[in-house]
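Run log, item B.
One chain of 461 residues. Sequence copied directly from the ordering sheet:
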Amino acid sequence: MLPALRCADAAVQMIMSRLEEIAQRMGRIPQHVLAGFSGGCDSTALVLLLIKKEIQLTCVHVNHGIRGAEADEDEAFVRDFCRKHGVPLLVYHVHPPKHPSEGWAREARYAYFREAMEKSGAQALVLAHHSDDQAETMLQHLLRGSGLHGLCAMKPVSEAQGMKILRPLLGVTHQELQEALEETGQSWCEDSSNSGNDYLRNRIRHQLIPLMEQIAPGASRRIAAASLMLQEDADVLDELAHRADAWMGKTEIPLEVLDCPSAVQSRILRAWWSCLTGPHRERALSYEKTTQLQSLVRETNGASCNLPGNVKAVRGYRYLHMISPKQERETRQWKLQDGLSVLGLTLEIREAGECTGNGRNAQAVPAAWLEDLTVRTRRTGDWIAPFGQCGKQMLKEYLIDRKIDQPFRDRIPLICRGSEIVICCGVGAGGIPRKNGQSDEPYVLISWHGDMPWTSNEKEK
């Protein structure tokens, strides 16, 4: 028998109304959700509300092993509650390190949430964060110097570690949840660690917010409401930052894409960093480092700055580059053959016919040369005899004259005869006799296919 919640009660009605409001914003609450259930007041109220809405529900409880017998009592409460209400439950036990931190506990908890999501087949994870949690999170981020994203605190609907996460109670206070449970006669567990001041969040909860409430009653609720309003501004800026989505995951991003307002530019740069280094490294890109990257955009070619993890950012002629220690210069060589795939490009060799090529991504060469040609990246001593110029030129100078960003130069496939560059992929060709209609000598057309970001639409000199 499901618990008879007294829906006439104003607090319960308000909670249900808020849940419906979030459901409408989402379109609908998924039919099967996983609820994080610690046994505390907030998660107990959440589980009761989900039962009331007759949603297919699985609960997950993580025993962190930090509070000894107290944690075991919480687990026993959760097991008994779920058994009484016929709710499937997944329980996980964690072996804590010698000095467990809040961050460690959160990481462990979310790892098991992710495993429980896969095991249960639930469509979303529902958490019991409420208005007071929102205010505490916003203040915690403010004290740590966070920008707009940090001040937005938690979103009603978000994604993390591949999970869709719903927080339907962000507009409800802890006191309202507690009153609702008291009215229904439902008990819950108290976590003794919440009463101490060992962590920053606890000091905010027990010292800072009470002082703010004394100065301006209702401060906590207004702070939480402000974070939700800031989310609307952040969503607009994030939408504008999507202009750079095509470059996420690449080690270069066009400077023209970064020609935008500072608030949008900083989002693009932080998203770019996160895509290249992984989501857990994103926090290491401080406001100071983000500002350095933004300053680099306004610098001239060759300017650089150091980033966390020995990563280096370099400003080129047309791109901003991010270079990791793994991208050290090393000459690589391949056998010239049709269908060769190197450095993300594919080489094609066919009869030239009347085609001579453009000298950049396609070029006709005497068929007799094929046996002597190799494909490789650059090395010291390389030179080229550019079309339309007298004599030869060192490859380094040739690439500088054509404004090829330095980080690209070791990525460009070269078709060579010894140290002579016959075709510099996407840049130009040299040392090849012109094909004409009076010659009987057979020619083949060598062409490259794929993304060559160092190539510009107009030849730059």
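Observations after the first pass:
- The longest helix spans residues 219-241.
- Residues 152 and 313 are 29 Å apart (CA to CA).
Flagged for discussion on Thursday.
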